[in-house]
Design a protein that fits this description.
mainly alpha, 3-stranded antiparallel sheet, two-stranded antiparallel ribbon, 18 helices, disordered N terminus
């Protein structure tokens, strides 16, 4: 079971969605606000679940457990809204599997709506706005209070197709199985996690991570790419070249699709549209690092052992055959320090070519400047080297030995553990 070697961005989105499902199984009587919210979630009524919790918190604002659940529900609403948009426009799953934030599996829509570049941006804009709502709620959770939240994962349902109910193709568990096909449905029905204070800050950190991804995409103008290649992703794109989407495609890759993919790579050449979003993305990444530290401080202080999502070395986690060792936690904090220094521009990322300094010193990329001084992003020219030049500097480099040591401590699976650890 997870962690495994897989696409990190895919795991990020799907693992978050999987691990934040708020479901406590069938409830014959909804006596408490938590039970009421869970009953709504089981019936794919996320808006009703959020409404019940918000009404309760108006008169019980110190209820940390209810506020934690509300933040988790709001996060799930962000996922549901994104999935609903993908379904509305008939996102083509084969191509979408290669793109971050598009890889949420959705049912086939027999009658998709038309999508324009403006509407595609609006989908991302709403996702970032939804995440901000969830993050703000989680930030208000008092982690010194009792905020334990037991959750049976596997029965939560979304209403992706807008028919007012959640089918077997609209479950959170189905999303997780895209990542880990080895698990069975019965595993999900029995999978109990008791989330606690450390997990509050963990989920809050993931809101920042996904917001950083969304803001980075929205910082640039990718209209030309959409106009010429949207047919790879949507059946009814509104572009100056409608014939591209009207061509019949075979079930296998043909010359049309291959030429579209080549064009797609060629057109990853985006002018800056909203530069302030790059600084916002940097803020989100820095906030994520701080929340990860806070999360692990809370986790290591725990003395119980109750169906832990992120266990300390003295606890047993719910993920089978995976144990967290103290050396892993220590190495994770080392990684956070390194990442913080890179984002601050205090350490540079080695680059394979570029002009040498007066003393032939190698130069590295100042990632801080990439965020604070954004320019047109041309993937090919970045790989070739000329577009990296404005960001190349002499200075302290992030040490390759640090990254090798992390791989050793995490037994060659650092990326998988990093997505889990946050």
């Amino acid at each position: 079971m997870f962690p495994r070697r897989r696409s990190s961005l895919t795991l990020a989105l799907l693992t978050i969605a999987f691990s934040t499902g708020v479901m406590a199984g069938p409830l014959p009587a909804a006596d408490s606000v938590i039970d009421q919210a869970n009953a709504h979630l089981e019936a794919a009524r996320l808006d009703d679940a959020a409404g019940v919790l918000q009404a309760h918190l108006e008169d019980n604002e110190d209820d940390a457990q209810a506020r934690f659940q509300l933040g988790a529900v709001q996060f799930l609403q962000a996922i549901e809204h994104l999935a609903q948009s993908h379904y509305r426009y008939g996102l083509l799953q084969d191509a979408a599997r290669q793109i971050p934030l598009l890889r949420i599996p959705v049912p086939l829509n027999p009658n998709p709506k038309k999508i324009s570049y403006r509407k595609a941006r609006q989908v991302l804009e709403r996702f970032v706005e939804d995440l901000a709502v969830a993050e703000a709620t989680l930030a208000r959770v008092d982690t010194s209070a009792d905020c334990k939240l037991p959750m049976h994962i596997g029965r939560i349902r979304f209403d992706i197709d807008g028919d007012g109910k959640g089918s077997d193709t609209e479950t959170l568990w189905r999303m997780y199985r895209v990542v880990n096909a080895g698990v069975r449905q019965v595993d999900g029905e029995q999978f109990l996690i008791v989330f606690d204070a450390g997990d509050v800050r963990w989920l809050q950190g993931y809101c920042h991570l996904l917001s950083a991804m969304g803001d980075t995409a929205l910082a640039y103008n990718w209209k030309e790419l959409f106009d010429r290649c949207a047919q790879l992703f949507y059946p009814r794109p509104v572009t100056p070249y409608p014939w591209l989407a009207e061509e019949k495609r075979s079930g296998t890759w043909d010359m049309r699709q291959i030429s579209d993919v080549i064009a797609f790579i060629h057109l990853i050449n985006f002018p800056v549209k909203e530069p302030e979003r790059m600084e916002s993305a940097l803020h989100h990444l820095r906030a994520m690092i701080g929340l990860s530290r806070e999360s692990w401080e809370l986790i290591q202080a725990e003395t119980d052992d109750d169906h832990e999502w992120l266990p300390n070395p003295k606890q047993t986690g719910v993920i089978p055959r995976v144990r967290v060792e103290q050396t892993m936690i220590d190495s994770w904090h080392e990684f956070l320090l390194e990442a913080e220094a890179i984002l601050a521009g205090e350490k540079l990322i080695p680059y394979w070519r570029g002009p040498k300094g007066d003393n032939a010193m190698p130069r590295g990329v100042n990632l801080h400047k990439v965020f604070t001084e954004p320019r047109r992003f041309d993937l090919v020219m970045w790989v070739q080297g000329t577009d990296a030049v404005p960001y190349l500097e002499e200075g302290d480099m992030t040490d390759a030995a640090t990254w090798r040591r992390l791989q050793q401590v995490f037994r060659g699976q650092f990326i998988g553990f990093a997505i889990w650890f946050n």
